[in-house]
Write a structure and sequence with these properties.
This is Major facilitator superfamily MFS_1. The protein is mainly alpha-helical and 444 residues long. It has 24 helices and no strands. The chain has helices at 3-10, 16-20, 24-50, 52-59, 65-78, 83-96, 99-119, 123-126, 129-157, 165-169, 171-193, 196-201, 206-209, 211-223, 229-236, 244-251, 253-283, 289-317, 319-341, 346-364, 367-373, 380-396, 399-410, 415-432. Helix 3 (24-50) packs antiparallel against helix 9 and helix 5 (65-78) runs antiparallel to helix 23 (399-410). It is globular and about 60 Å long.
Length: 444
């Protein structure tokens, strides 16, 4: 997607230069670079989830299918353990050296690690060393991803005019979903075109091989941009925080707690609805893999469209109102929607997934901007990255594993729905403690 198209999709106004003290062309480049870079990172990261059943066969062929899938999702979950550590390290780099530097290195590391996954030997070739290597590479991926979402949002927020900040930062979850959509479409295509044997032999490696060229494209675009006006101002006034993590936990513990709590809904909802759902539909509902991925692809497309609408509405209604509304909707509608999936036709399943995606956009279209607004500039990257990644480590990365385990332990296909309801309740409590941040200048 070209930068002018992105600017048009985001409704870029001509007064952006005045508000953000940069030219409209620079703002367009910022939006384009953030979209492309985040798209590449999450296409790489999501491919693992979409090919989980095939990866389970390649790396855990000696155990029962359910156990193999659990082991595959366990590797997915364990790789998230490194993310809070990555958030602290990337946050320190972003707050001390610059946002652009952190984002450039994160995309390079992610692309390299993803390419390595494509080249890993299977269990039949090297035995137990294969899943060990898979875990190591996944942890490198997790470390890299820890710096991407927070960095891209902070980068855009610090370039954005106050009255358009929600709309502009919504491009980050939109690009994340676009990466997932590309992975889902590729998965649907490969499962349709290749036989089961071909998929297990080489088909699952194809998306991972695309990582390196895509990563270099994203890196090239990012290196052509200057760092944000906010960060350059800090550098000029010698207010760059030498130890942002210490400053964060000494003076901003309340903001960290609120950010962690509200992100729990994003973490569980994002990975259950947009990543785990194809596996749930194929393993629990008996839907064909190609159909399951197609249904998810359609819902992702609607999600991308709606995310911009929610970003714009959060500028008008407020971040707190939008995020509280999201929690209440998930508490009330998750279990009924999951119940309707059992025995539903393909068209009905698609409509249910679109409904879930719409609910998720109420949270996701608002959350990035809110997290960038509650922390001051000198610790913005660190605060956002740590709280966001800590919640994703505990609740996001474990969501597919917990969902699969809950179904196995309880025998209920609705178990994942109740887990999502619990996450929504935690997010609601966090937002009731928060203050409104919309329509105000970023805190310095």
């Amino acid at each position: 997607m070209s930068n002018p198209m992105l600017a048009s999709a985001a409704g870029l106004p001509q007064d952006a230069a005045k508000d953000a003290e940069v030219s409209p062309d620079v703002v367009k480049k910022v939006l384009g670079a953030s979209f492309v870079g985040n798209f590449v990172e999450w296409f790489d990261y999501a491919s693992y989830g979409y090919f989980a059943t095939v990866i389970a066969h390649a790396f855990f062929p000696e155990i029962a299918p359910t156990s193999a899938l659990l082991a595959t999702f366990a590797v997915f979950a364990i790789s998230f353990i490194i993310r809070p550590v990555g958030g602290i390290i990337w946050g320190a780099i972003g707050d001390r050296v610059g946002r652009r530097t952190a984002l450039s290195w994160s995309i390079l590391i992610m692309s390299g690690a993803t390419t390595v996954i494509a080249l890993l030997p299977s269990y039949h070739q090297i035995g137990m060393l294969a899943p060990v290597l898979l875990l190591v590479v996944r942890m490198v991926q997790g470390f890299s991803a820890a710096g991407e979402y927070a960095g891209a949002t902070s980068f855009i927020a610090e370039y954005s005019p106050t009255h358009r900040r929600g709309l502009y930062t919504s491009i980050v979850p939109a690009s994340t979903a676009a990466g997932l959509l590309a992975g889902s479409l590729m998965s649907a295509g490969l499962f349709s075109l290749l036989t089961e044997a071909q998929m297990q032999s080489f088909g699952w490696r194809i998306p991972f091989l695309l990582a390196l060229p895509l990563g270099f494209i994203g890196l090239y675009i990012r290196l052509r941009l200057e760092d944000t006006p906010k960060f350059r101002e800090l550098e000029k006034t010698h207010h760059v925080e030498a130890t942002p993590v210490r400053e964060l936990f000494r003076n901003h513990r309340r903001q960290v707690a609120i950010a962690f709590g509200v992100t729990c809904l994003n973490a569980v909802g994002f990975y259950l609805i947009l990543s785990y759902m194809p596996t749930y539909l194929s393993t629990e509902m008996g839907m064909g893999k190609a159909q399951a991925f197609l249904a998810t692809s359609i819902s992702l497309a609607s999600y991308i469209f709606l995310i911009f609408l929610m970003g714009m509405l959060s500028d008008r209604l407020g971040r707190k109102t939008a995020l509280i509304t999201a929690s209440v909707l998930f508490i009330g509608l998750t279990v009924p929607l999951f119940s309707m999936l059992d025995g539903a036709s393909f068209a009905t399943i698609v409509l249910i997934q679109i409904a879930f995606g719409a609910l998720l956009t109420v949270n996701d279209g608002t959350l990035p901007c809110f997290l960038s607004e509650i922390f001051p500039t000198r610790v913005r990257y660190s605060g956002f990255a740590f709280s966001f990644n800590a919640a994703n480590a505990l609740f996001g990365g474990t969501a597919p594993f917990v969902a699969t385990w809950l179904i196995s332990a309880t025998g209920s296909k609705l178990a994942p729905a109740w887990y999502l309801v619990g996450a929504a309740g935690l997010a609601l409590i966090a937002m009731l403690m928060a203050r409104e941040t919309a329509g105000k200048p970023l805190e310095d």
